[in-house]
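Most newcomers find our protein records easier to grasp once they have seen one. Read left to right, the backbone structure tokens trace the chain's path through space. Nothing more is needed to start thinking about how sequence determines fold. An example says more than a description, so a record of this kind follows:
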Amino acid sequence: MGNADSKLNFRKAVIQLTTKTQPVEATDDAFWDQFWADTATSVQDVFALVPAAEIRAVREESPSNLATLCYKAVEKLVQGAESGCHFEKEKQIVLNCSRLLTRILPYIFEDPDWRGFFWSTVPGAGRGGGDEDDENARPLAESLLLAIADLLFCPDFTVQSHRKNNVDTAEDIHGIDSCEYIWEAGVGFAHSPPPNFIHDLNRTELLKLLLTCFSEVMYLPPASDSSNANPWVQFFCSTENRHALPLFTSLLNIVCAYDPVGYGIPYNHLLFSDYREPLVEQAAQVLIVTLDYDTSTSSSPTIDGTTTGTVMDDTDPPGPDNLFVNYLSRIHREEDFQFILKGVARLLSNPLVQTYLPNSTKKIQFHQELLVLFWKLCDFNKKFLFFVLKSSDVLDILVPILFFLNDARADQSRVGLMHIGVFILLLLSGERNFGVRLNKPYSVRVPMDIPVFTGTHADLLIIVFHKIITSGHQRLQPLFDCLLTIIVNVSPYLKSLSMVAANKLLHLLEAFSTTWFLFSAVQNHHLVFFLLEVFNNIIQYQFDGNSNLVYAIIRKRNVFHQLANLPTDLQSIQKALQRKKKASEPISRTNSQDGMSMEGSRPAAPAEPGTLKASLVATPGIDKLTEKSQVSEDGTMRSVEPESSPSPAEGSPPGIISDTESWSGESSKPRRDRRRLSSSSSTGHWNPSPEWVVSWKSKLPLQTIMRLLQVLVPQVEKICIDKGLTDESEILKFLQHGTLVGLLPVPHPILIRKYQANSGTAMWFRTYMWGVIYLRNVDPPIWYDTDVKLFEIQRV
């Protein structure tokens, strides 16, 4: 039968279904088989031939027929899994049912009255055969999930058959050990099966259906406690699924082993179609959804202590019930970590390779899913985190993240990408090794829209952060605290900042310490505290190599004097607020001489008008996101108890007051523009009082810098007068050999703000991840135009 006939027959069946007012018996195979037995329709065909309006009409007007359709389609998948799909016809039926369910499920989920349908065992109205409603009948959802799992390890359908001949000895699908059929070499599996594009296509279709099953969570509003686990994921990742381990391993390996370069030959991807990429994307999406797990409310699955032997540690206490999270947290072999890290770094760097060798490799689009995966790896497996930081390989993750942050800074539709990039860097910055690694010289010349500089990865990080703060869009202001916290965390370890980076830090201090900015919102002064803490850390712990920064501080000494003499009387406060900048720019760009941008770079562009984006729930304030740890002499960290009174010691800003958008019950509303710089803050109309200014001005940690200026400024001035110098290289040479030993106050303890898991970020990750998945699945558009509740789809 031709494809056109096939489509026509399928469409006829759909019309019959929508026009029948009477329930059709489940036993009427002649009617139901039209949907899957004789058709060869692609998933795109199914979406075109089954319009949304018709699915909703059947749901409202003849619900029993929709119920029977779902029930029969699941039954066909179960039969296919039972029989092992040895014949082409069976394979075709499985694929057709899979496509049909992918189309229909979102419309079941969007209607609260139907939500329990898949979890019920009662075979709906007019079902023939009375033997189905026995005690141990499984809910429909469970039967569907187990069938998908079986079908993903079905020889000659989704995996390579191990049989030499196919004479009546077809493998018994229940007898096979699916661990021998893992899809790709990597973690816990050494054998890479020969590529088979038919298997890849079939796996992709089944994973699409699996992802659709998991998407029920999109139709529930975000909850402030993310403990409401997704029942589909919960069941699929439980011991009920005998393929949990091989499937977890297959998904992880297929993602981490993927090389879009086209088998190492540049431009090769232009010559042949890549069937692997859609599979890798779908695998990455299924993987991150199965790992959606809130560690803050449960016993954390992260594990320390080393054991060798099996791929997964067996010696540790049992982890969470979610086996995927459990397995992820127990990977511990160095070669497995190396494989994962190399794979993620290769894929994250792919868009960068594009910029200097256009079209040489296939450009991948799933970097956001990779960032979520990398986050989960670091968050759930501390050994992996330590492995990443053990060598300079962490820089292969850092540079792409900085590239994405810089590239997306002006684009309203990529706020989520900005957040996850910053969250990952915040997590890494809590470990001393990260700061140490940043001292490696930066020589890779990825074209980026930033000033040309010669220096280290620390310089790159500071310059990109400065660019985000001074030329990103308004919606990024809630991230300023995080960006500066990262710089504070690494500052005690930075051996030598370039002049470009030193000037950027002082430009930020200048911008953040203007009186109108300090007085115009209740938490703006925290940014000044963070920057002073950075300067204090570098002066106290890394003075010797940092003559550029010391010189920049001396040149801008008036900024520090103005802070020390900040007016606190009411009249001055009001005058400062009247001077408030008219521009909506958060920070003036004056006296930030950017000079030339790097060759070959394109300026960061805003989103094209009309671009779709998903709204995000709020992220918790920095005080909720992090906990303070003090670094002792031997480098170990101990947690610092938060002060009960809001009077922190010198050098640490008071607990950051959370923003309007910080975790509140209002998360279901779309994210509003937060104007941190307006004179009315989150608490309605807030007005700065003299007492308030005095309360924090007295805690500004200026002693160290004032002492430095007191000692060095006269010496520098003397050199200039004596030698008639206007040349900064002589002054720098003097500062390089200078010393402040014994002249500075006693060094303060180093304070690190380490990321801590909390339900606020768990919920943020859930909404972000599903927003990405919704927007990335456009062919076919699985969820488009359905009534999702977890986020709002907005146009820029």
Observations:
- The two ends are 46 Å apart (CA to CA).
